[in-house]
What we know:
Elements: H1 16-19, E1 31-32, H2 44-56, H3 67-81, E2 90-93, H4 96-107, E3 113-116, H5 123-130, E4 134-137, E5 141-143, E6 146-148, H6 151-160, E7 163-169, H7 181-193, E8 197-201, H8 222-225, E9 228-232, H9 235-238, E10 246-250, H10 253-265, H11 273-285, H12 287-311, E11 316-318, E12 325-329, H13 337-347, E13 350-351, E14 353-354, E15 365-369, H14 374-388
Parallel strand pairs: 1-13, 3-4, 3-7, 7-8, 8-9
Antiparallel strand pairs: 2-10, 5-6, 9-10, 11-12, 12-15, 14-15
Amino acid sequence: MYNFDEITERHGTGSLKYDLASKRGMPCDTLPFWVADMDFKSPPEVLQALSQRIDHGIFGYSDSIDESYFNALYGWNRGRFDWNIRPEWIVKVPGVVFAICTAIRALTKPGDAVLIQQPVYHPFESSVKDNNRRLVVNELIYRDGRYRMDLDEFERQIVEENVRLFILCSPHNPVGRVWTGEELTAAGDICARHGVFVISDEIHQDFVYPGYRHLVFAGLKPEYADITVTCTAPSKTFNIPGLQISNIFICNEDIRRLFIAELRRTGYSQPNVLGLIACRAAYEKGASWLDELILYLSGNLALLRDFIKSELPNIHLVEPEGTYLAWLDFRKSGLSDQELEQLLVNKGRIWLSSGPTFGAGGRGFQRFNIACPRTVLEQGLNRLKEALGSI
């Protein structure tokens, strides 16, 4: 029903993904597979809703003042994740990173310890450091081609470093884990036992491959809901990050009050009106589009998997359980990260996300965004083969 093979020209649109390469001195024909936005048009139902609102012609200060916005969020979370949200839990902000920084300032003091699990989405680290908090890194364990949490070290660090806040990435970017209930419960019990707040970044919650299921961390136990700021957005799911709308769920009234007070200090008030329109339309009418998209992404993943196996045996795919981001292990190439970067860009004319960006545990890895038309992915894989053919 939906055409994910359609190629849409994005050069000259102010796209970070496409228009930044030349500014960074890369060849003008570099293919980008780095930043996590998709090369698919948003669902037609979303575009139609936006078009109708644009035709109205007035874009004054707005908010979701009726029940329809909440009902859209409620139906989505109940239907997809069996999580029953309440209207008073919702705080609308421009983006998840904005929310993470706001929560850090609201729930900790300068110098307090904040724990993250690297390799992980790089703004976690910068959000901690930029807000003058002390970074504590609990490295994920990579063994037998799969990542897991080091829970013994996790608890030791919380106690010895007096950690006040943990930032959870679920599903995990970039390693692709969809954490199990057992893993989340083990980490959650440790946090609850030691009075540690949790920011749960669940922006990739809708991208889960068959055989796996995303579990809302705050929905697992009441004591987790009582310590957690849950960060969600329609931006990744429906490819609308530029509309800047995220829905933050805070069950605990005291935490929510602190968060809102810090939010006011930023000067932010009403959200983007087009973001509100797009979010509501996406959650009301975008389910079938998303279901077809995940099938398409599964096909892209199969193409990537088979190509690496047959053409690039020195690269290992860390099998993703969720997200549209593939985590590739290049360590058998024998190249340094800098050498690998130069080879990919200058010879392959292909732009991936460098592993060390995500922390020391990312050395020797690259992140590959597969959310693109299949012909574009094929072209990128052939360029990857061309770049690595000489080693």
